[in-house]
Amino acid sequence: MAGDLKQIYHLFNPNKALQNDDLENYYVEIDQNEINIEDLKTRLELSLETHEPIKLLFTGHRGSGKTTALNRLVSYLNREMGDKFFIVHFSVLDLLDNNDINYTDVLFSILIKIMEKCQAECDISPSLVERTKRWGKSITSTEVSEDKVVAGAGFNLSAYFVELLARMKSETTTRQEIREEIQPRVSELINLINDIIAEIELSRRQVLIIIDNLEKCDYEKALDLFYCHSTQLTQPICKIIYTFPISLRSSNKFTQIKMNFSEDIIYPNIKVHEKDGNVKETNGRTFMKQIVAKRVSTDLFTSEALEYIIDMSGGVIREFIRIIRDSAVRAIARRKTLIDKDIAVEVINGLKNSYQAQLSDEDYEVLLNIYETKDIKRDEKLVGLLHNLSVLEYKNGRSWCDVNPIVRSILEEKNLLPEK
Amino acid sequence: MEMEPSHFMKVEEIITLLDLSEDCTIAFVRCNEPILCDAIYKEIFERIHSRIHVYNIEMNEESTNLFQLLEEITKSNSYNSKLNENKKIAFFVFGLDCAVKKKNINGKSEALLLLNMMREKFLEIKHPILIWINSASLNLILEDAQDFFSWRTTVFEFDIKRELTSSPIFEFEDFDDLDKKGLEELVDYYKNLIIEFENNKLKDPYKFAYWNYNLGMIQLFMGYSKEAAKYLETAASISSMLDNRNLKESIYSNLGITYYQLGDLKKAIEYSGQALEIAKEVGNKKEEGFILKNFGVIHAQLGNIRKAIEYYEQALEILREIGDRRGEGADLGNLGNAYSDLGEPRKAIEYYEQALKISRKIGDRRGEGNHLGNLGNAYSHLGEPRKAIEYYEQALKISREIGDRRGEGADLGNLGNAYSDLGEPRKAIEYYEQALKISRKIGDRRGEGNHLGNLGNAYSHLGEPRKAIEFLKKSLAIGKAIEDPRIISFCKRKLEELEGSENYKTSKNPPASKTLFQAIVSKLKSKK
Q: Is B405 domain-assigned?
C-alpha cells in the first residue's frame, strides 16, 4: 500500500501541466470550464470566416489549469482544424526570464517562434528572409558564431535568432543591450511579423498565436505590458491568445486595457462551495474527486481527509495537487498507509505560514470586507490579494470572490471574523 | 508673395504702434528684400488705411533732407484738412537707402548728418514716422546718426527665409534603413501581396487596410504626398467597416500629416482631430502627445503661433507624464521653432538647448543631430552665420555617424544656406550639390526640390542668372509635381526677380515700391 502512496507523489506534480498521453489519461472535464473553452473555440471559428485578427485575453488564477486547457485546445485545433489554423503555441518562460519581461521581448519571441515553425512547414520569400536578416543584424553588435547558424543550405535564420535569444535569457547585459536596440526598431519588427503572417496565410491557413505564462510576471511588469504597451502587443495582424493575470482584472486600469482586446475569457476556479458558504455536494467537488480517482485509488484517502483537502484547496487545482502530494510525503514518512485528516491538517497548517507572510495590515480589512460581501469589484487593493491567491475568484453566472480557505482560517485564529 | 507667420506677428506690432502713437514716434522697418517690403507695405496699408492716412515720402540722392520733406507736407492743404477731420496720420519714408549715398566733402552721408543735426525739429512732427531701410543703411545710421537713432522706438526686422528648410514633424522609424531601391522593392512587395491575395480569393480586409497604409507611409516618406493621400484614404475607407482602432488612429494621424504637406490645412486638422479622439479613447498617451504636437505645427503654419505654443505645451505635459523623453525633446524643439517664428531667437535657443540636453542624456543621437541643426538655424536668424556653421557641422557629423541620410542631406543644405548668408555662394553651391545628390539617392523629392531651389538662389547671388533660372525651373517642376506650396512660391518669386517677366507677377505693386523694384533690376543689369 505504501507503494501506492509513492504513486501519488509521482502522479501529482504541481509543476507540470498535463500534456500528450497524460492529458488523455488523466484529464477531467469540468463543466463550467468546458463551457468557457467551447466559447473560445466558437469565437475562433467565427473569426476564420471574417479573417478577423481577434485578440483574446485568457485569464485564470495561478494553478487553475490554464496551461492544461490551452494544451487541450491546441490538440483539438490541430486534430480537427489543422488545415485551417497555423498554430504557434509557446510559453514565454521557455524563452525569457519571467521576472523581467518587456513588450519588446514578447514581440521578438513571436517573431522567432513563427519563423521556427515556418522553417519547418512553409516557404518564406527570399526578400523577406533578407529583410529579417538585416533587421537582426541591426539590433545587435553581438556576433553570433556562424557555425551555429550555417546549416546545409546556408544561413539558418531562425537558428540565428534562437541563439540570440538564448544569450538574452542568460546574460542580463546582452538582454538590456538588445532591448535598447530593438526599442527604436519596434515598428520594423512588427512589420516583419506581419509580412511573415501574410505569406503564411497565402496557404489559406490562418495564423493563431498562443502565448502562455504571460500572467506570471509581477504587477508592475504586467501593467507595463498590458496597459502601457497593449497597442504594440496587439499590432500583429493575426489571431492571438494572451494569458493574462486575473489580478489585473480588478485594477481600475482594466477598462482601458480591455479596449485593445476583442474579448476576455476566464478560466475559473472550481467551485467547491456555494457563495453563501454551504458546502453542498456541488459538481465541483465531484470533479475534484474524479481528478484523484483517475490517477489513484480514492481508498488512499480517508473520506474526511479528502473532503477537508477539497475544502482548503479553494478549488484551485494546483493547490489541490500540491496539498495532496505534500500529504503523501508526510504519510510515507510516518509509515502510514493512507492519508488521514491529521496529516491533511498538518500540511495545511504549514501552508498557513506562507500565506500569512504575504499579508499586510491593510490587507486584513479588505479580506474581512470580502468575507462578508463576496463582492468582486474594481479595487486596486484587491489586485495584490488576487495575485497571491489570498482571494479567489469564482464564476457561476456572475463573478464573485471569496477569501482563500487557508487565509480564512488565519482570520479565524486571529479572532478577526465577526460573530455568526 | 506669401508672408511667413513671423512676419505677420511683426506687422501686428507695427500696426499697434501706429495706432497708439499720438506724438512723434520714430521707428524703422529693416528689410533687405524689395519684394518682401512690398508685401509688408501692402499688408499694413490694407489694414490701416481706413483709419490712418499714410503719407509716402520718397527720398533719393537729390532729396536728402527728410525734415524738409516732412515739413512741406505739414504745410499742405491736404494735411491741414485731414487734421481738422481729426484723422490720424502716419509718415512712411522710403528711399533712404539711396539718399545715404550722397556724401559730403568729409565722406559722410549728407542725409544722415541732417537727421542727426535736426533731431530736435522732428519733435514738431506729431505723428509716427516709419522709415524703411536695409541692413547697410542701418549700419551707417548706427555709425553716423546715433543721436537720431537713439530716439527710435523700435527697429522691425524682416527677413525672408532664403533657404527652404524641410521641417519634418514626424519621425519615420520603419523605413530609415532603406535606400531608394529598398523602398521601391518594398512597394512592389506589398503590391504583390495584394495581388496574390486577390488571386487566391482571400478576402482579408484587415490585411488590405494594413498594406494600403504601409504603401501610403512609404510614399509619404519619399515625399510623394499626393500618392500617399490616395493610399491612406483607401486604407481609411476599408477600415471604416472594421474595428481596428489602432490602425485607424495611425491612418488618420498620418492623413493629417499628409494633408499638411499638401498645404490643405483644413483637412489636416480634421483628420488629426479624428486621430486624437481615438487616441484618447484607447488611452494611447504617446499618440495623444504626438498628435497634439502636430496640431501645434499645423497652427504654426497657419500663423497662429500662440495657439501652436498652447498645443506644444499640452503635448509636453503628456510626454513628460509618460516619460517619453524622445518625444519631450522633439516637442521642446518645436517650441523653439515657435519662438523663432515669433522673432525671439534667444528664447528659441533656450528651448533648443533644453532639447539638446535631453537627447544627449538619453543617447538619442538622431534627436541630438536635429537639435544641433535647430540651434544652427537659430543663430542663423540672429545673423550669426559662423556660429550657425559650427552647429551645422556638429549635426552633420552625427548624421553621418548614425547613417541618417535624410539628416545628412538636411545638414548639408543648412550649411549651404549659412555660407550663402556669409556671402560665399561658391561654397554654398558645393554643399547644395552634395545635399542634392543624397536626396536623389534616397528618393526624397521634397529635399530634391529644396536643394535645386537653393542652388538657383546661390547662382543668382553669384551673378549667373542663366544657371540660376535653370535650377529654379527644375525646382519649380518638382514643387508642382508634389504640390508643395512653399517650393512653388519660393521659385516663382525668385524667377520673377530674375526674369522680371509678366508671367510671374503676383500682385499689384503700390506706387512707392516701383522704384525699389526698378533699383534692384538695374543693379542686376549693372553687375553683368
A: yes
